[in-house]
Specification:
358 residues, alpha+beta, Thrombin, subunit H, six-stranded antiparallel beta barrel, six-stranded antiparallel β-barrel, 3 helices, 29% helix, rod-shaped
């Protein structure tokens, strides 16, 4: 171990000398003989001090920038998640409004036709053995649904139930080539058959059994109805004829109709669990499109200028004589068209979301 006894006196002398120098320098101020040494030291070490301070500041700013970037990234992620959540809420609200509107239209159709329905929603679209165009709905036998029941939406005929499970059912759409529905022309007795073409968003084929009957574009079709209302109840709107084919020599006349129900975008539907007591005929059809009145099509006629109250000589013109009204000697016809009220379908409702026709 090194002997430090000799270094101790030297260290003590140096400390005393340093204290003396500091005291003298402090009392002398700028007149201190050591002032030149302090200025020289400041000139030498000042750049180093500034450089060190700049480095420290730059490092601090860099750390702050890195921390701020991480925070900004987290904030951006939170904002994106919030944006997606709000988009989901808006989409759900929009879907709820659309479904509410579809449900109101469905209940209106059921009320006009006096159909007792069970409401459901389409949950899947798939093909099943033997059929090409079917959908799955979320109601089944527990809700009173059975096979061979009519399925409608708020606009018209959708199809029929071909399989009913406890909680779900399979519906054969009107557009399927295997679908065949008896149909009648609005306001007439001529009947025919509506068949699918395999294209849900396109037209269906209508074959009129009477070759002498007249078919025209714009004629509307309703379901003729099956025996005991299965598989199809009467009076359900099917579609509007858009094209008529000339088929000389054939036993039937063919036309193509656009279905009222949008079979490619189904959501809310109703299964008719009980049909009407009487055929509603054309009462379920929507109002026909308005036709322009003859008066609006006539050209406006210019009114004759009225004669002056004074004649050419300045004398007052003689008063006009109003012809006496001519009485009609014939008896006035009376309209006796009091429509028969359609009776409400009765009976015990099945279990499920059943809505009786109003």
């Amino acid at each position: 171990m090194r002997d430090t006894r000799r270094a101790r006196p030297v260290l003590g002398v140096l400390l005393v000398a340093a204290m003396v120098v500091m005291t003298v320098d402090d009392r002398a101020g700028d007149a201190s003989p050591l002032n030149w040494l302090r200025v020289a030291a400041s000139s030498v070490f000042s750049p180093v001090e500034h450089a060190g301070g700049a480095v420290i500041i730059s490092m601090g700013e860099l750390l702050s920038a890195v921390t701020g970037a991480v925070d900004a990234r987290h904030r951006m992620k939170e904002l994106q998640e919030e944006n997606e959540r709000l988009k989901g809420q808006l989409a759900a609200q929009r879907l709820d409004r659309e479904r509410s509107a579809e449900l109101r239209e469905l209940l209106g159709l059921a009320g006009r036709g006096q159909y007792t329905i069970v409401t459901g929603q389409v949950v899947a679209r798939r093909g099943v053995p033997g059929f090409e165009d079917t959908v799955e709905i979320d109601v089944g036998t527990r809700d009173g649904v059975r096979s061979e029941m009519t399925v409608v939406n708020g606009h018209g005929l959708v199809g029929r139930v071909v399989r009913a499970g406890p909680a779900t059912s399979t519906v054969l759409l009107l557009s399927d080539p295997a679908s065949s529905v008896g149909a009648r022309l609005e306001g007439r007795k001529e009947i025919g058959v509506v068949q699918g073409t395999g294209q849900p968003g396109r037209r269906v084929r209508f074959r009129l059994l009477d070759t002498e009957a007249r078919l025209k574009v714009g004629a509307r079709l309703v379901s003729f109805g099956s025996k005991r209302g299965k598989p199809y109840v009467p009076g359900v709107p099917i579609g509007v004829i858009e094209r008529v084919e000339a088929t000389p020599g054939e036993l039937t006349r063919t036309a193509y109709a656009r279905p009222y129900a949008n079979l490619s975008a189904l959501d809310v539907v109703g299964v008719v669990v009980k049909g009407p007591r009487r055929d509603p005929r054309d009462a379920v059809l929507p109002p026909p499109p308005r036709k322009r009145s003859e008066a609006s099509e006539r050209p406006a006629t210019s009114r004759r200028p009225e004669a002056s109250e004074n004649d050419a000589g300045g004398r007052p013109a003689p008063p006009r004589r109003t012809p006496a009204p001519v009485r009609d000697g014939g008896a006035t016809d009376r309209a006796d068209g009091a429509g028969r009220a359609t009776e409400r379908a009765d009976g015990d409702p099945p279990n499920g979301r059943e809505v009786p026709g109003r």
